[in-house]
Amino acid sequence: MSNRTTTRSNLLAHLNTTFSINFDSVFTTSYVINYLDYAVRILAVLVHLIYIYFMFRVKKFRSRTYFYMHNVIIVSLVYVFHYACYTGTGGPTFRSLELNLFFCYLSEQIWSILKYMRAFSILLLAFYRLIAVKNINLYKKMNSGLSFILFSILGSLITSLILTFVLKYAFNTTYSVYFCSPGYSDNIKDMIIAFILNIFISNILPTVVNLVAYFKIIAKLKLNRDSLNRNNNKEAASKTNKASNNSRITPNNESSMGTTNVFTTQTSANIISNASNTVKRDLNVKQSRFAKQFILMNLFIVLSNLFSVIVDFLIVLATNPAFYYLDALLWQFRPIARILFLIFQSMIPVLSILFNPEVKFMKIFEKGNFLKRGFLCNSSII
């Protein structure tokens, strides 16, 4: 225990001297990047808050079908907000060492929980959209109440808490000098194993599952579209044959009433069939639009996860004394990788707003609507 406390003290002492950002230093490239880094952190928080505003203002966004998407954005908001709580690239710089140690320990757990929550929120959204396409009856049952949705989100939180503390104490890891990030250890073997497991659970697994879910969704939508096209072709051929047969019939006075009833019944059946196909076609179009939104989100999720791995490597593994040469070589790339990660992460709420197939958010910017209503727009209009 004393060795663990000594290690933490050395880390914080190292943090408070060598790795603290001095914003009053001379003008250098790193000086500009550091300010840009923090500006992007604040901007990322604001982008997520705009989504939260629409979440409360837009009526359709308050439906159960968007709860998993809201979960993704809220977890992402807390994640980027945690970044913004650090004004530099080091750790806390309180006067009290005990307060610094406590804050870093707390921040270490928050980072881990949020990483796993971010991964599980993406997985829940992917499964939810896959079920919406593959099993409409199960999808309706899931949306019949809030119990299933809330329990699944609560389950992801509990799982994140369990994984955080099990992996931490299994490999005896602590925090890095940068952002108090989790996964640091003086034992290189334990640190690498913990790093690989964390990366697999929080980055690789959600990326692979998302891609698999997307391809399954696309395949199912293609089958639905082909089925609709075949039904439409059959109906068109049937209507042509019936019209040809009807043109040859000349009903006499005695049978005219019966023939009219037959024609009326057939017409009603055609109307019902056309209406059913129209509903299916509209549903398929909506699902296709959601799939296009999903592929764009997947693209940025993959890029975000990629740079998340790079950031984790640079601020955890590279700070071990055995890898100081990497830290010296790549220290200027740390804020750049973090900036790219935050930009790609912030594109998820942007795509959720601008590429939503049900809500036309761009209407508030058309014909001066934004100048007239702005952020006080009526949610029923959007």
From TrEMBL:
User: Which ranges does the record mark as transmembrane?
Assistant: 38-56, 68-89, 109-128, 148-171, 191-215, 294-316, 336-355
Q: Where is the composition biased (Polar residues)?
A: 238-259
* Domain G-protein coupled receptors family 1 profile positions: 47-352
Localization terms from the record: Membrane
What the entry lists under PROSITE patterns is as follows: G_PROTEIN_RECEP_F1_2 (PS50262)
Q: Which domain of life is it from?
A: Eukaryota
**What name does UniProt use for this protein?**
G-protein coupled receptors family 1 profile domain-containing protein
**Entry's CDD domains?**
7tm_classA_rhodopsin-like
The signal sequence is: none
Q: What is its main location?
A: membrane
Q: Where is this region: Disordered?
A: 233-259
GO CC, any one term: membrane
Q: Which UniProt keywords apply?
A: Membrane, Transmembrane, Transmembrane helix
